[in-house]
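Researcher: I'm preparing a figure for a lab meeting and need a structural model of a single chain. I don't have an experimental structure, so a prediction will have to do for now. The sequence is pasted below. Please return the structure as tokens so I can convert it later.
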Amino acid sequence: MLDAALAACNPALCVPPHLPPAPKGRTVVVGAGKAAAAMARAVEQHWPGPLGGLVVTRYGHGVPCKRIEVVEASHPVPDAAGARAAERILESVKGLTSDDLVLCLVSGGASALLALAAPGLTLADKQQVNKALLKCGATISEMNCVRKHLSAIKGGRLADAAYPARVVTLVISDVPGDDVSIIGSGPTVPDPTSFADARAVFEKYKLEMSPAVAARLASKDETPKPGDPRFARAETILIARPQDALEAAASVARAAGYQPVILSDSLEGEARDVALVHAGIARQIVNHGQPQPAPAALLSGGETTVSLRGSGRGGRNAEFLLALVVALDGHPGIHAIACDTDGIDGTEDNAGAIAGPDSLARGRTKGLDAKAMLANNDGYGFFAGIGDLVVTGPTRTNVNDFRVILVERPA
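Model: Understood. Here is the structure written out token by token.
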């Protein structure tokens, strides 16, 4: 099911059908995200005329391209390589004419990779804010609201710089609700949020604000807003969504004799809390045959969060799965997988993990206390200890979290 989900969102398949006609003038390809290099290669393989450009992706996620330069940079905390790439991307779209085309390739991860600081800020300022946002449990929409207002390229500023050229943006969605102004912090999309909204995120999570950041968020240099005439020639196309991945996985489940139930493609909240809800639904299937009699497959996507309380290792998918294991307490006939579709769960080397009715018992035989490890945010340590990490390597796509719970028919 995971393989089918990833295949459904493979840039080699989902980019070509959405390529625009070649322009009279130049074609400049730019982009950012964990899928950006794979998207760029798909463009090269199917573009009828000359083109050039630059995309930036996460370290280890690059692929060979002949005409489009691929730069690798840091994610989720930005680095100098990302800042230099973003500056070059912004410069590459300036001075174009109405006969030219900017083809922008955006996928999850673009926000951290396009790390060009707004006037008055430094890369260090952005790094500090990014780390604080990642640690506090802010949602992706809250994080990207802040990032847009500290950036010289996000929140529509890239399309603004490209005007009057035509801008076509191909987007692989990694955010709940598929809001293109949030995906990658919308570098080519008008921004409906404001400096006041960004300040509210700092207040909500009680985050410290440096003098430079405070000055920036108090400025009048707002991002371009909906209705701005400079976006009249800008078009954004969603080419792959979390729902596409879930539907592909559901087809595999159905063929294997499990009735799929897609709970949602846009779940948010603390990973351990979302796990409790999933555990409750799985039990309802076993005990009452609702919302679907077993054998059934519960599927969900979205982007959960983790508020760091301990010093363990593991991303939100390992946290979700460990909380699920604790909640189900060895319940027979229930198996699960939780993975990030980009192949990287948080900052670790795994995509996620798998679990079954025997996970707790197997952990105990190795001296692993699941409850204590959950309290320490050490999902990685638990599943590594029992040999149940899922390691895919970089998938070069990204439609966020992928979760399946298989519920067998009671014996």
